[in-house]
Amino acid sequence: MNGDLREPSAREPLAIRLASHGVQVAFIFGVLFLWFLATNIWRVSSILLPNPVDVWRQLIEVIRTGEFVRDLRITLGEFAAAFVIATILGVAIGYVISRSRYLIQVFEPLFAAIYAIPIILFLPLYVMVWGLGPPSKIALGATISFFPIVLNTVVGFGNVDRALIAAARSMGASNLQMFRHVLLPGALPVVLAGLRMGFTVALLSVIGSETIASLAGLGHRIVNLAENMEMARMFAYIVFVIAIVAVLNAAISTIEAYARWQ
Length: 262
Prior knowledge:
This protein is mainly alpha-helical and 262 residues long. The chain folds into two domains: 13-44; 62-261, Orthogonal Bundle (MetI-like fold). It contains ten helices and no strands. The longest helix has 39 residues, at 2-40. The radius of gyration is 23 Å and the shape is globular. The two termini are 34 Å apart.
């Protein structure tokens, strides 16, 4: 009887994962089907929405020629630099603030209020200071992704169970041992959530800013194709960017899951 009761629960996580993946795949195929109907049956103008077959051919051509390499390298370089800067500053500053209740009361609502501001509105100012090249995109991406990282770091370290801290202190734990065995394990899930949010907004802000004011990058390429009315190739690059974002998101999700289990 006990074996029968445990067996369904053992299968449940796998069933849930398969079901969720099935819904995701069905959603993608549904979008593609509607896209095909719109361009072939409902006769939506190819200027607004090119045929998915043409987009696929252009995507294959883009990958075959390798013309995307330079733009991809620039975009990923800007994103990586922005995320690393935001992570170092966000985690360090967040940890320092979390050690003082007074600092938490001062800076947590301040950072939350600033984070609510659409900082991309200040892109013209960043361009004036750092120019149209990668530095302005790095600075903007780092600024935007800093806030979810620092806020989650403050919350994560600030809400570690005080009883655990007191118990570790009573057993003579050093500051390093306190951080390694009490603070970090207690704060890690929340900090990782902040890093994932920062990862996402850094990537979105870099690509978004490239579409507004830049000299190169995937966002710049997409806008340039739109201005030249090469809609099928523009959509091919959009699909390419979506694929890159999906791969990066899967990678960060895998790293986050691994870190949670350590």
